[in-house]
């Protein structure tokens, strides 16, 4: 059963953190229902936030969803194309953690995502210095 | 084959420009000089070396009307070169820039000088810059009769201002009447596009002046219709490596060149929606390519490659990717590998300059490209039947 959502106002970091917390609840439910692709898409919505604390909180949520994905190709098929570039950014953040399990998963996603979308996606994730994750 | 001629001049070319009759070419061989070559009996001979700049020559243009060459450089200077006998004599143009100049263009041909009343030529200038923005200015040149020129009809200039780019712009007759940097230009910015979150490079106007196209280093190409108070922008994500320069060959077809070393064709459909059509040049992998959309491993002769066939365009990913993904795979060869080369491609390094050539027929079909491989390639779209509908 979904928890009641806390009221959210746009703008401040506190409010964005609250939004992320709400997202986190939704994602956990979706993972429990064996819907990792939907969970990931939910995690990627409204990403990335601008504030550093929010970025970290959002990464935690995205990471949870990433680790729940077993069928990478299936996930990419159902993912809305507008999330490809942001997903690639999170893949690089995952690769930078150095954690073996995270890196292994991110490497797999990197491979399939590059195959699907091409080098341009990698370039866009590297060249964008404004919307960083 | 769309590439009809390939000329290997030097190791690396920064930019190039053709003489009015296209018998000579001027280019910068990635240093502070401008070299002029002439085609003599089927061989390119170096005729002149223009030495005056202190740093890289980043832009060259050869006037079609007055046969003068203008060059700009990272040394923040510009020279106009006049041919006097066997020599090319430079005249310094004071630019008052505090940054490098990156490109330059002579104003459009055929602008008559004022006879009685000096009219102002209203020109739309588009600039791109390393701050990622594309700015369009409405600007004026004094002393030019402009009745024929309407808004939107422009000289397809390419330049930018801001952090690293500037322009020198001349009238096409004898007198140097107009020279400016971004601070001294009589201008009115009519549009600023902040579509790219990274460096923006080549910009080009469509023949009618209604559409603008520019490229970003984030593998994007931007098409802007109805440049003015309410423009219509299309952001087209490029699947491949970023583009450096762009050229309209017709109202509905654009050629982009860049780090994929192969010109890319973009076209607009009937509703004005732009999309990538295909690569122009040959793209053969060095191995027997696999089926479309799949990825397979090929090992042999100590070379491990990942070869992917993207439907029509097969491409070879370097063995670096192989190593990146291969950590869980067996049998990776540890021998030294040769870099995979795409056979049959006209350019084998980044193309950074594309120029229109004089056309044989009524439709624009020929253009030249130069790149960091030191080659100048002439392209002709005549045999590309699938592209005819866009010309």
UniProtKB/TrEMBL annotation, chain B:
Cellular component aspect of the GO annotation: Arp2/3 protein complex
Family matches, as SMART domains: WD40
InterPro entries (alphabetical): ARPC1, WD40/YVTN_repeat-like_dom_sf, WD40_repeat_dom_sf, WD40_rpt
A Pfam family recorded for this sequence: WD40
Source species, domain of life: Eukaryota
Keyword Cytoplasm: yes
Keywords, in A-Z order: Actin-binding, Cytoplasm, Cytoskeleton, Repeat, WD repeat
Keyword Repeat: yes
Alphabetical GO biological process terms: Arp2/3 complex-mediated actin nucleation
Main subcellular location: cytoplasm
Record GO terms (molecular function): actin filament binding
WD repeats: from-to residues: 50-82
Localization per Swiss-Prot or TrEMBL: Cytoplasm, Cytoskeleton
Family to which this protein belongs: Belongs to the WD repeat ARPC1 family.
Protein name according to UniProt: Arp2/3 complex 41 kDa subunit
Species, as recorded: Hibiscus syriacus
